[in-house]
Write a structure and sequence with these properties.
Elements lengths: L5 E4 L3 E4 L2 H9 L4 H6 L6 E5 L35 H17 L9 H7 L4 E4 L11 H10 L3 E6 L4 H5 L7 E5 L5 H8 L6 H11 L7 E7 L8 H11 L3 E6 L18 H15 L2 E6 L4 E5 L12
Parallel strand pairs: 3-4, 4-5, 5-6, 6-7, 7-8
Antiparallel strand pairs: 1-2, 2-3, 8-10, 9-10
Length: about 300
């Protein structure tokens, strides 16, 4: 993890510099979340409270999984040792350490760098399944107390945890990367029983959330980029605020499991999104060609997350 430039926090958490943090500081190129939702890329902390734990071993996931590098560990171990407040404080310190090297970079935008030292957003994703951290609601609250917005990204296989959150995130992402159970088992490789049924329960629960919800569909050519009608049925039942079809990227440890040819082009993602929009009644609101992602919604325009806290 350290060789891959993760900043380890306590016993089970980590922060890592997003590629787009560098791009926005040095080349003034923000990530698609800023374009879609108004989040300032340079003020976003990318972190996880469950670095080594997940209920799935998705073929397209960039994280190191049990057996990838001849190491074995219990990926279902519940990380619960460190307190939410300690994780938040350590995450902010780690982000500041990441930023410190840019002070000597003549190409860095110094105004953005100054603003970046006061993060305003936490992307609770990175690696692992964050709802395995037993105090996930309290972690969200701890970030909110710092006047930060939060994106919680979950694979949806632990619906009871999401239903019992003591505090909702600013925006909730649920990954739904298969149109049917057979594809789900092959591509997402669940490690717990009834994972497909649990995911469907989570998706059907989305309308009960007060915060905006997103169904993320990571698409890999030759694996799960099929059966648009099946995905459309999922979207109709979940009725999320947004849908994000996004291309699998051939990076990290996913390269040990699937090939470069499994990475769809932007044109393929756009074509898939157009079909999905036709089937669901959602409309294409925005796109990012370089990130190979399209934003769909029934809204006229996205709600800016930066205005919600």
């Amino acid at each position: 993890m350290i060789k891959q430039k993760y900043h380890l926090i306590g016993r089970h958490s980590a922060v890592k510099k997003c590629r787009w943090l560098h791009e926005t500081l040095v080349h003034n190129r923000p990530c698609y979340k800023q374009k879609f939702y108004g989040i300032k890329t340079h003020q976003c902390v990318q972190m996880t409270p469950a670095l080594f734990s997940c209920t799935q071993r998705c073929l397209f996931c960039w994280r190191a999984q049990n057996g990838d590098i001849r190491l074995e560990w219990d990926e279902l171990e519940t990380p619960s040792t460190d307190s939410p407040s300690d994780i938040v404080e350590a995450s902010i310190r780690a982000q500041k350490a990441i930023l410190s090297g840019y002070k000597a970079n003549p190409k860095a935008d110094m105004q953005k760098l100054k603003e970046a030292s006061k993060p305003k957003h936490a992307a609770i994703s990175l690696t692992g399944e964050p709802t395995l951290y037993t105090q996930i609601g309290e972690l969200i609250r701890a970030f909110h107390r710092k006047e930060m917005t939060t994106f919680l990204v979950s694979n949806g296989t632990l619906p009871r945890i999401l239903a019992g959150l003591s505090e909702e995130p600013t925006q909730l992402y649920v990954s739904a990367c298969a149109p049917d159970k057979q594809t789900f088992i092959h591509v997402c490789r669940p490690q717990i029983p009834n994972a497909w049924e649990n995911l469907k329960e989570t998706l059907e629960m989305l309308p009960s959330f007060r915060c905006p919800t997103v169904v993320r569909i990571t698409l890999a050519e030759g694996l799960n980029m099929k059966n648009v009608k099946g995905y459309a049925e999922i979207i109709r039942k979940a009725s999320p605020t947004y849908v994000e079809p996004k291309a699998y990227m051939h990076v990290g440890f996913s390269r040990l499991r699937i090939g470069f040819d499994n990475m769809p082009s932007y044109e393929q993602i756009h074509a898939f999104s157009t079909q999905l929009a036709t089937e669901t009644g959602y409309r294409i609101l925005d796109k990012s060609e370089e990130s190979r992602v399209v934003l769909l919604s029934k809204l006229e325009k996205p709600r800016l997350v930066c205005s919600q806290r």
